[in-house]
Write a structure and sequence with these properties.
This protein starts with a strand and ends with a strand. Helix content is 26%, strand content 29%. The protein contains five helices and eleven strands, in the order E-H-E-E-H-E-H-E-H-E-H-E-E-E-E-E. The chain has two domains: 121 residues, Rossmann fold; 74 residues, Alpha-Beta Plaits (2-Layer Sandwich), CATH 3.30.70.
């Protein structure tokens, strides 16, 4: 996949390096070319110094031929404006913008922009760490929450097929965490037998 990452701060550099490591073709834009040092010596993508507000900079960096664009500078207004340019001028379908202000997330989503609010994500993680049981973890995707729960295998669960277990209402089998730490994901048709020492992982869509 050809990906354009706009902004080479901590988030942008980390994202670009991960995409690069996974074999994607990555171009990174930032006005401050000294920030490209964050990418490290092993980064095999392309860096492009210039203002992302300049359409010619985006064009020269290959925006028109991208499969996806991530706009992750530290400026909400800049991120939204560049996202609109990417969708409106360069007709890129998959554009994701980073924003910090939670109040803007719903507004920009209503405009058809895909926004990730890192403030909300951090708040969700902190709230979960403070209030939820250690066996539960909630992740938020846009306006949807996905809750994972873990139950130690015991009693009648042992030697039974994961797909046939009686689970709390609204929960569905997701995986088995084996005693040795390996994870077996649930799939159809499922013939995963629960063994002593296993942990059952379920998912609940909120």
């Amino acid at each position: 996949m050809n990906v354009l990452v706009i902004g080479c701060g901590r988030l942008g550099a980390s994202l670009a390096c991960r995409l690069d490591e996974q074999g994607h073709d990555v171009v990174v834009i930032d006005e401050d070319e000294t920030l490209f040092l964050r990418l490290g010596e092993n980064f095999s993508g392309i860096t492009f110094a210039g203002s992302p507000m300049n359409a010619s900079v985006l064009r020269n960096a290959g925006a028109a031929n991208c499969d996806a664009i991530a706009v992750v500078t530290g400026d909400d207004n800049l991120n939204i404006t560049v996202s609109q340019m990417a969708k409106g001028f360069f007709h890129v379908d998959r554009v994701v913008a980073r924003i910090a202000d939670p109040a803007r997330e719903e507004v920009f989503s209503a405009l058809g922009l895909n926004c990730i609010c890192h403030t909300n994500l951090a708040c969700d993680a902190m709230y979960a760490a403070l209030t939820e049981n250690e066996t539960d973890q909630t992740l938020r995707f846009a306006h949807h929450a996905v809750k994972f729960s873990r139950y130690p295998a015991r009693g009648a669960m042992i030697d039974h097929n994961l797909s046939l277990l009686s689970l709390p209402k609204g929960e569905y089998p997701f995986a088995l965490e084996r005693k040795d730490g390996t994870l077996e994901l649930y799939h159809e048709p499922c013939r995963i037998l629960v063994q002593p020492g296993d942990t059952i992982v379920t998912v609940h869509l909120g």
